[in-house]
Amino acid sequence: MATSFSSSISMQARVSATTTRFSLQKPASIFSNGKTNLSFSLQRSVPAPRLAISCAAKQETVEKVSEIVRKQLSLSDDQKVTAGTKFTELGADSLDTVEIVMGLEEEFGITMAEERAKEIATVQQAAELIEELVQQGTA
């Protein structure tokens, strides 16, 4: 004896002026001998908008890191420093990066392991590491 069922889930996301509709259908047959046959299909009625990736760190942390980087590298006010900005794009060499890390440690009251500090290449990476270290310090 077999039991057969089908379910449908519809989701609708509103992004600016366009609407994206997803429909998920899950037909399944369950047989008395314990075997199950499942199949899934995902249908999209209109193209999805571009994927945007955001920084996991808080905006205020990113801004503080940007200020410290700006100060350590003596950047002018018109030079743009964002979460995705690489230190090398700003003209930083390895000594500058060490000074940036020292400034960050002092500002946030943390200590970065040398191996972890070497991995930092962007403002975002620095902010995320800082938040991780601050959270570990409070845990």
Verbal overview:
- Carrier of the growing fatty acid chain in fatty acid biosynthesis.
- Belongs to the acyl carrier protein (ACP) family.
- Keywords: Chloroplast, Fatty acid biosynthesis, Fatty acid metabolism, Lipid biosynthesis, Lipid metabolism, Phosphopantetheine, Phosphoprotein, Plastid, Transit peptide.
- It comes from Thlaspi arvense (Field penny-cress).
- It is found in: Plastid, Chloroplast.
- This protein has 139 residues and is α+β, with helices and mostly antiparallel strands.
- The chain has 2 domains: 2-44, no CATH class; 59-138, Non-ribosomal Peptide Synthetase Peptidyl Carrier Protein, Chain A.
- It has 4 helices and 4 strands.
- Strands 1, 2, 3 and 4 form a 4-stranded antiparallel sheet that branches.
- Strand 1 and strand 2 form a beta hairpin.
- Helix 1 packs across helix 4.
- The protein is globular.
- Mean pLDDT is 74; it is low at 1-41.
Number of domains: 2
User: What is the element string, with H for helices and E for strands?
Assistant: EEEEHHHH
Portion in helices: 25-40%
The tally of beta strands, per DSSP, is 4
Fill in the CATH topology of the largest domain.
Non-ribosomal Peptide Synthetase Peptidyl Carrier Protein, Chain A
Largest sheet: 4 strands, antiparallel
Which class do the helix and strand fractions yield? Answer: alpha+beta
Q: What's the CATH class label of the largest domain?
A: Mainly Alpha
Mean pLDDT: 74
